[in-house]
Design brief:
Fic-like fold; 10 helices; about 260 residues; mainly alpha
């Protein structure tokens, strides 16, 4: 990976790490750099981490389906049988960040369809959850009520058909038009919220790749995670202006 691309990718990793409430340490930066430079395979990094944490992948409960939460907990069924939420969040964030670095080095080579988004989600979380890449089957809410699961497929088809019609945002010569459309699709996908968990991390990588393919760089290093979250929440209610304002500060044409 060229030095400029490595620096931009590390800024992406910094943003993602801090957005998850974690510290972007020198140790993490070096590990991400090694993966993106090809000096360390993500498979090895994940295996070493699982071993260092003493995680047991043999603890499976056949009575629970992939999208269940363990009784009396807020923990999704996972390959390690972890039922402590803080521990699961820590494991989840670390392993998915290693896979994020891997995808920044080698993005998926496929059209920007719903299947692409599901493949990203599976790649990020497939080491942890059997439900990785699956559309959620239960209602979900946080800042608002997200799309009900029975409508996800139909709404995803509508949204991704629109995205295809726009040639994946490559039809816009004017950066303002590109940013307006990017904010719209970010907000719509946030409202769709197709997965049980990890929606933000998967969609961020998805839109990062779309922007690059359309000739734009998203300068995540200049973005404030809290402002970005607030703007994304506003977009859920159809108010895209805050998200547009954030993107105007960080989206740069690659030709500049």
């Amino acid at each position: 990976m060229k030095s400029e691309r490595l620096a931009i990718s590390l800024e992406y990793m910094r943003f993602t790490t801090e957005a998850d409430g974690e510290e972007f340490t020198e140790e993490l930066e070096q590990k991400f750099s090694d993966i993106m430079e090809g000096d360390l395979s993500a498979d090895k990094a994940v295996a070493d981490y699982i071993r260092s944490e003493g995680l047991d992948t043999s603890s499976d409960d056949p009575k629970l389906d992939d999208q269940s939460r363990y009784p009396g907990t807020r923990c999704l069924v996972n390959y390690f049988g972890i039922k402590d939420k803080p521990q699961l969040k820590r494991i989840d964030k670390h392993i998915s960040s290693l896979r994020t670095a891997e995808l920044l080095r080698s993005p998926l080579d496929m059209p920007f369809t719903f299947d692409h988004l599901k493949a990203i989600h599976f790649h990020l979380f497939g080491d942890i959850y059997p439900s990785a890449g699956q559309i959620r089957r239960r209602s979900s809410s946080k800042h608002t009520e997200y799309c009900e699961p029975e409508y996800i497929d139909a709404q995803a088809k509508r949204l991704f058909d629109e995205l295809l019609a726009s040639k994946y945002l490559r039809n816009f010569d004017d950066s303002d038009d590109f940013i307006n459309e990017l904010a719209y699709y970010m907000g719509e996908l946030e409202a769709l919220h197709p997965f049980a968990d990890g929606n933000g991390r998967a969609s961020r990588l998805f839109f990062n790749s779309i922007a690059l393919a359309a000739g734009y760089e998203i300068g995540w290093g200049s973005a404030d995670p809290d402002n970005f979250l607030e703007a994304s929440v506003a977009a859920l209610d159809g108010d895209y202006q805050a998200l547009i304002d954030v993107l105007e500060e960080i989206v740069i044409p690659l030709s500049e």
